[in-house]
């Protein structure tokens, strides 16, 4: 778990002794599959690091449609906006699998930010990367078609959760096809059609809540 934590931006600027001290201030939060940690609009007073499992961040529109913002895995951090803007949560966090989080309250983190500006800088870099990714997603929605967005989403998931095998890259993403549709901002029917087309071309093989990427090069070209 220590190796996982060291990947989190919160720990990037700390040496081993400092990281161990900060880790001691964190509280373990176990979550069952389908359990929500917080909901959009809830007050936010702590950040979280994923230690084990997978979690999705998603929003619900006034008419009930869902939009998935991100799928997070071990070493990834969320909730840090509450440190700099103590407003309500901007999304709902729901576990996709059995998940273990490590939580750090704002009151426990604030002394670290005051004493070690490099920690605050690392957190701001993480927020900047997330903003950049949001800009990329917005551009994709405007300029890329649904098959292109599906290909890009699968490649992104493979970078987080993929395991190389003799056949290709095995990606256990734990998403339903409806959730993949929410991730790329399209209807389930359109996403299913794109996945079936990729499978027919021999670019991938579909499995239950998983996929094997057989031709990463062609998927990469299709994602552009």
UniProtKB/TrEMBL annotation:
- Endpoints of the signal sequence: none
| Name of the featured protein | CRP-like cAMP-activated global transcriptional regulator
Species of origin: Allostreptomyces psammosilenae
Q: Where is the HTH crp-type domain?
A: 144-217
Molecular functions per Gene Ontology: cAMP binding; DNA binding; DNA-binding transcription factor activity
- SUPFAM superfamilies the UniProt entry points to: cAMP-binding domain-like (SSF51206), Winged helix' DNA-binding domain (SSF46785)
Q: Which domain of life is it from?
A: Bacteria
A Pfam family matched by this chain, by name?
A: HTH_Crp_2
